[in-house]
Every structure is written in C-alpha cells, then in structure tokens.
C-alpha cells in the first residue's frame, strides 16, 4: 500500500528520459514514403506519354509545351531518385539479419526495386513505372509482416 | 538471442530508501525496444555506482550514452563483455531496435549505470 503510494508519487515527478526507441531517436520507418514517390513517377510518366505536341510554327504553344514537358521530366527524375533513397534507407537501416532468414530473397527484392527506380528515372516507361509500384507493394507486405502488423496496401491515386 | 528476458524487479524498501538518499536515479522509458520487460512510460531506478569497480555482467539492463548521438541516453541489455571491456548491448525486442548490431560494441566509459528496479505506471 505504502509502496503503491510512493510509486504514484514517483510517477508524478518529472524524470529524465532514457530511450528504448527503435533506431535511436526516431525509428519511424514506413514504405509509404517510397510508394508516394513511385506514384508520382507513374503519374508523370503517364502525363509525358499523353502530352500532345502543338502544330508547327506556333511558337507560343511550343514554349508552353516544352515548359510543361520539362517540368514533367524534372519531377519524374526527382521522384524516382527519392523513391530509390527511401527504399535504400529501409533496406540498409530497417531490415536486419533476422529478417533475411525469414525472407531469403530480400536483397534481390530491394536490388531490383532500386534498379526499377533508375530505369524509371532514365526512361519514359509505363511498364517499368507499374513494375516499380508492384515491387513497392511487395516490400510493403514484407515490411509490415516483420512488424507482425496487418496494414492494408493502398495508393493515393 | 542468447539471454532470456528476465523481468526487472519492483523496488524493494531498500531501493526506495536508496532513491530517497539520492543513490538511485529515476528515469522514464520511451520507446518499445525493451518490451516485454520494459514498457514506454515505465520508470526505472538506476544505480550510477554499479560499475565504478565492477564490470557489467551479461544479462544486466543498463543505461548508457549513445555512442554516436550526443544527448541521447539509451537503455539496453548487456549480452556480452569483450576482453577489452567493451560491451555488446542489445534491445530486448530485437525486431525493433538499434543496438550493438548497428552501432557496434560500446566502451565502458559510456555506461551511466545499472537498472535495479522498474516502477510501472500506477
């Protein structure tokens, strides 16, 4: 009874914090960040492919067309690079040897996904952009399985 | 993991007394890497003099400075002490923590003390 009262009192006082966090200060990992970037890549790829060039001689329309195309390309490349960075962080920081025992093809999975990011950055390939989304969905499933959590995969678009 | 998770005892009368005379440091656990033996929000009592003469033993739960991040204090279990007195620290919940598998063995001087008891929230 007395100890309970002391415990309660001890909890009311401020105490310095000691971290049992996952990965130092934060440890917040989620394949969603890679998925969002990959969705942007897919979206930009579709927009580039759908863009219609203006008729010859219309310089204002050409300026507008080239401006839009350049922006789509720049965003596609930037987001493809971001998707790759996010995947590499998951691969090298979150995943541990114990996961490799559970998923022996983990390295191949990430290597292929990272290569798809590079392909999407360089090319205008709807096929590769869709494959990248599939690869990230697979990583999503592996990731949440290692945390014993059932998190439904979804896309924003 | 070679060590089995042995629970940390609740404070005895002696522990409470040592806290009152400031021989125990009270610290609050954040994060989940020491589950199931420590939950976020638990308080722990820490003996800062535990390792002035003695080396930690495998199985001890200790508080230490993080080797790479200033101002970060970590709580881990000692799984081994090397011949050159460096410590292999591990999370209890090995799926969820950065520990010696990432930051390597840590030198003894980074130790703050030994966790002697656990005070769960009332």
What does this molecule look like?
- The complex is a heterodimer of chains A (157) and B (122).
- Chain A has one domain: Four Helix Bundle (Hemerythrin (Met), subunit A).
- Helices cover 70% and strands 2% of the residues of chain A.
- Chain A has helices at residues 2-12, 32-50, 59-94, 97-102, 106-122, 126-146, and one strand at 17-19.
- Chain A starts with a helix and ends in an 11-residue tail after the last helix.
- Chain B has a single domain (13-119), classed as Umud Fragment, subunit A (Ribbon), CATH 2.10.109.10.
- Classes of the chains: A mainly alpha (157), B mainly beta (122).
- Chain A binds chain B through residues 3-4, 6-8, 10-11, 13, 15-25, 27, 96-98, 146-147, and chain B through 10-11, 13, 16, 19, 25-34, 38, 40, 43-44, 63, 66, 68-69, 72-76, 91, 94-98, 101-102, 119-122.
Name the overall outline of chain B: globular
CATH C-level of chain B: Mainly Beta
Percent of residues of chain A in beta strands?
Answer: under 5%
Low-confidence stretches of chain B: none
Mean pLDDT of chain A: 91
Order of helices and strands of chain B: HEEEEEHEE
Helix-residue proportion of chain B: under 10%
In whole angstroms, how far apart are the ends of chain B? 31 Å
The gross shape of chain A turns out to be: elongated
Q: How many strands, which pairing sense, and closed or not: the largest β-sheet of chain B?
A: 7 strands, antiparallel
**Total separate domains of chain B:** 1
Number of helices of chain A: 6
């Amino acid at each position: 009874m007395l100890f309970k009262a002391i415990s309660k009192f001890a909890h009311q006082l401020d105490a310095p914090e000691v971290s049992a966090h996952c990965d130092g200060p934060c440890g917040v990992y989620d394949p969603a960040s890679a998925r969002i970037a990959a969705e942007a890549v897919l979206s930009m790829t579709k927009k580039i492919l759908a863009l219609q060039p203006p008729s010859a001689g219309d310089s204002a329309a050409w300026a507008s067309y080239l401006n839009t195309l350049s922006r789509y390309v720049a965003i596609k490349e930037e987001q493809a690079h971001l998707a790759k960075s996010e995947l590499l962080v998951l691969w090298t920081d979150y995943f541990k040897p114990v996961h490799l025992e559970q998923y022996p093809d983990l390295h191949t999975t990430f290597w292929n996904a990272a290569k798809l990011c590079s392909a999407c950055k360089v090319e205008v390939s709807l096929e590769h952009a869709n494959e990248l989304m599939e690869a990230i969905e697979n990583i999503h499933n592996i990731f949440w399985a290692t945390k014993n959590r059932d998190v439904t995969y979804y896309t924003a678009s | 993991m070679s060590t089995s998770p042995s629970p940390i005892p609740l404070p005895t009368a002696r522990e409470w007394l040592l806290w009152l005379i400031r021989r125990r440091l009270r610290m609050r656990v954040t994060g989940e890497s020491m589950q199931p033996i420590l939950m976020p929000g638990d308080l722990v009592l820490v003996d800062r003099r535990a390792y002035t003469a003695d080396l930690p033993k495998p199985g001890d739960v200790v508080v230490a400075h993080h080797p790479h991040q200033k101002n970060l204090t970590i709580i881990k279990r000692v799984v081994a002490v090397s011949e050159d007195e460096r410590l292999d620290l591990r999370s209890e919940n090995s799926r969820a923590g950065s520990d010696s598998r990432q930051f390597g063995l840590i030198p003894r001087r980074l130790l703050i003390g030994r966790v002697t008891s656990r005070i769960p929230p009332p």
